[in-house]
Structure formats: structure tokens, C-alpha cells
Design goal:
Distance between the termini: 19 Å
Largest sheet: 5 strands, parallel
Strand content: 15-25%
Number of strands: 5
Strand order of the largest sheet: 2-1-3-4-5
Number of helices: 5
Shape: globular
Length: 125
């Protein structure tokens, strides 16, 4: 089972992420967070295989949260979420430790394959 943490400040987006991930029998959403600080706490508590983290979050950006998650939960792979065209924030998210950044409009098609890739990379190390 692949444990996943969902991090997004919008309840509708969190619900959509949960619905997409629940389509896959090998994925379990273990926690959700609405801001960067809560994301770090939840990642530390649950040590998920993957954290799906929105770049733009209240109280602490997804970029800062990603850095702290990698420190406190080094085995957690991070997939960044963004809305719209790629920006410098996308590269900052990669620099913070994310394996990839995907546009929210692509998540239905790209999220699950990225989760599998993240888990495969983790087990190869």
C-alpha cells in the first residue's frame, strides 16, 4: 500500500485529489493538510511514501513545507502541484526536494504514474 498525504488549502481540490487517488487500490490517503505548517506535522506523524503538496499555501509556502518535510521525513517523496504555466516557483519546488511539479489540470492523468515513479525511485535507493 502506498500512503499519501494531500496538502492543499482548497477543500474542493483536496476532495478531487482524494477521489482521484481512491480509484487506485494500492493507494491510501493517510492524511490531509490545509497549510504548510500542518503538512509538516502530518508528514512527520504519518511518514507517508508520497506527499502531494500545493506550491501556494497559507502560513507557509509549499516550497518551505517541502524543505521541512524532506528534513523530518526524508523517505517521503514530494510531488508539487501548481496552477497555470510553469514559473520560477516550480523550479524552487524541485530544489526544495520535489521529484516533479504538475499542473492541477493534469493531475487525473499524471498523478498516479508519478506516485508509482516516486515509490520505485525510493525503493531503488
Amino acid at each position: 500500500m502506498i500512503d499519501v498525504l494531500i496538502v492543499d488549502d482548497h477543500p474542493v481540490m483536496r476532495e478531487l485529489l482524494r477521489q482521484v487517488l481512491e480509484m487506485y487500490p494500492d493507494v491510501c490517503v493517510v492524511a490531509e493538510a490545509v497549510n504548510g505548517e500542518e503538512a509538516v506535522r502530518q508528514a512527520s506523524r504519518f511518514q507517508p511514501a508520497v506527499a502531494v503538496v500545493d506550491i501556494r499555501l497559507p502560513t507557509m509556502s509549499g516550497i518551505e513545507a517541502a524543505k521541512l518535510i524532506k528534513l523530518q521525513s526524508p523517505c517521503t517523496a514530494i510531488i508539487g502541484l501548481t496552477a497555470g504555466e510553469p514559473t520560477d516557483s516550480d523550479m524552487a519546488m524541485i530544489s526544495a526536494g520535489a521529484i516533479a511539479v504538475i499542473d492541477k489540470t493534469d493531475l487525473v492523468h499524471r498523478l498516479y504514474p508519478l506516485i508509482l515513479e516516486a515509490v520505485k525511485l525510493k525503493t531503488a535507493i
